[in-house]
Amino acid sequence: MELRQLEYFVAVAEEANFTRAAERVRISQSGISAQIRALEREVGASLIDRSSRVASLTVAGKAALEHARAALASAESVQRSVDEVNLLVRGRLDVGMVTACTVTPLFDALAAFHHAHPGVEVSLAEGNSDVLIQRVLAGTLDVALVGTASDPPAELESFVLIREGLAVCVPPGHPLASRREVTVAEVCEHPVVCLPVGTGIRAVFDETCSRAGVDAHIALAASAPAAVADLAARGMGVGVLSRSMSADFSDRLEAVPISDVAVDAVLALVWSPNPSAAVRALTRLVSENV
């Protein structure tokens, strides 16, 4: 008994017609008929009633159908498992991350993945979160580290690494530097240096301004947190970053929490449903390194 015979039998059973079944499995009608007759000889029973124009199942055929489907599904699972192992031996993993990422769990996970699966080629692309999310949805990235306002997109699988508020970063001596916290309205009394539209931090800040009914004067938008900090340190405006980002620049800036942030700033790993073995391996390593 061969798997292709079971495939042909299931096709005839589902199409109820030899011609349509032959077209479905891309074989001639005479070929599919011959293979099913060979299957019937092997099992010792007629499976298809050929007495009318409609190909219907005999009692034996009905009993065999679900077992044939199960056998084909098992064979497909075996092939899928082998394919996934092969991908971990010599496949490719396309990873995206927010520009100027400094989150060590991702780097630690990538290093561990490389040591465990040296034959897998890993590519790394930087970009704004909105672009990275669209690339994951389109299938041009396997997984991406992105910033979002509140929760990651529901249509993607995700693992949240950080959920936090925002802070305003100002040099010592600035009017806000001695405050324990500030409102977004107080922040917007000054020119603002922030990350660009399309980033999670900017989305959180814009949403907070909108809900508070204030307009921010964005003096400059810089793509990297370090650039935002450098510009704020030089008096180009007050910098707005996440609280964890702002802590990286405590040597030259005071970080003051913004008290009325409307939604959380979230840093998350996102990937499509039904991920490959490589994606599952990487996401597991990230979760272990957080």
UniProtKB/TrEMBL annotation:
GO MF assignments: DNA binding; DNA-binding transcription factor activity
Record carries keyword Transferase: no
Cross-referenced InterPro entries: LysR_HTH_N (IPR000847), LysR_subst-bd (IPR005119), WH-like_DNA-bd_sf (IPR036388), WH_DNA-bd_sf (IPR036390)
Domain HTH lysR-type per the UniProt entry, residue ranges: 1-58
Signal peptide limits: none
Keyword Transcription regulation appears in the UniProt entry: yes
Family assignment from sequence similarity: Belongs to the LysR transcriptional regulatory family.
Protein name per the record: DNA-binding transcriptional regulator, LysR family
